[in-house]
Each structure stands twice: as structure tokens, then as C-alpha cells.
Amino acid sequence: MGGLTLKLAIFDLDDTLIDFATTRESAYRCQSEHLDRAGIDSAAFVQGCARVDRPLFAQFEQGQMTRDEYRLRRFADPLAAIGVTPERELVAHLNKIFMDCVNDRPAVFEDVQPVLARLRTLGVHTAILTNGPSDGQRRKLKATGLGDSVDHVAIGEETGFSKPSPRAFQMVLDRSRSPRPMRSWWGIRPSWTTTLR
User: Fold this and answer.
1) Band of pLDDT at residue 1, cut at 50, 70 and 90
2) Considering the entire predicted model, what is its pTM?
3) Is the pLDDT reported for residue 192 higher than 50?
4) CATH architecture of the domain with range 8-19+108-196
5) DSSP string covering 122-182
6) C-beta separation of 40 from 84 below 8 A
7) What is 20-104's CATH number, 3.20.20.70, 3.40.30.120, 1.10.150.240, 3.40.630.30?
8) What is the pLDDT of residues 85-100, one digit of tens each?
């Protein structure tokens, strides 16, 4: 980095600090237990969820769908696809099962807290920048203690700007009040990798 000192490290929440893949699978298992008792093909339901979730979430990120619409359709659409009427009560219960698991019992990667603690001792400011729905992300931050482990948290639904928009990163940079020679974002999705100069 040409001798520049790292001043700010920005982390995504899901799939970077939180092992969301493992957490999501746990939530699907809890949903499956409920569906199996009701005589509904849980394996086909979960496969349907995997197909529709990312496209629906992308619409939410881009402001094309409300939070409530996203949460309804991510489970209603897979039910309809396997021939089950997506009754509102059933969909609401599946959503509650899912949210209680992923938001209140998320799995954190084991190296996260040591890395955050090391950055703090080195004087590096840390921030979490996430696109998830605000209420769920706040529950994850509380359940894991990650909100208290970083200097700043920015949630796209609260700020009005989501990754990969440069405005989302700029708002975090402005809050850091650190010098601005170079700051880099490293995300697990190549399309989200951003360097601000």
C-alpha cells in the first residue's frame, strides 16, 4: 500500500463476520421440522427458498421491494411452487421461525473477535456496513456483541444507501474522521470490492 497506514477497516456482516450459510441452514432445519409435521414437502420447500431468495433480496436492496414484501415472498413463492397455498398465517410463522434463528442465534466465525480486538490495539478504526433489513441486523449485532466490538455500524435501510453504492462507503468514511490517503473495502463478493481514494 505504498507505506500508507491502515486507518479504517470496513466489514460486511453476513458471510464475513457471521457465518450466514451455516446459520441459514439451521433456520431451514427448524422450518422443515414444522413443515414435516404439517405433511408438507420440506426438502422441496428449502430448494425453492434457495432459488428465490437472492433475486428477491436484490430487489429489496435496490428499493424495488419493501422489507415486508421481501419477507412474505421469500417463503410464499416456494410454497406456491410446490403446490401449497401460501396462507398468510403459515408464511408468517415460517418467517418468525427463520428470523428467530438467524437473528437471535447467528454463528460467528471463530476468528472474528480476535481480529477485531487486534485491530483495536493497533489503533485501526472498524466499521460494519451491511445491506440487510435494519431490525434483523440490529438483532444480530446485539446477539453476537459485534455492535459493541466496532466503532461504527451503518445499515443500508437506515442510511438510504446500500453496497455497492460509493455513497454507502462515503458515509462510513465521513463518520470515521480519519485521514484520507486511501481506504479499501474487502468483501467476499468481487463485485463489491471498492477502493476509495
Assistant:
1) very low
2) 0.81
3) no
4) 3-Layer(aba) Sandwich (3.40)
5) TT-EEEEEE-S-HHHHHHHHHHHSGGGTSSEEEEHHHHS--TT-HHHHHHHHHHHT---S-
6) yes
7) 1.10.150.240
8) 999 999 999 999 999 9
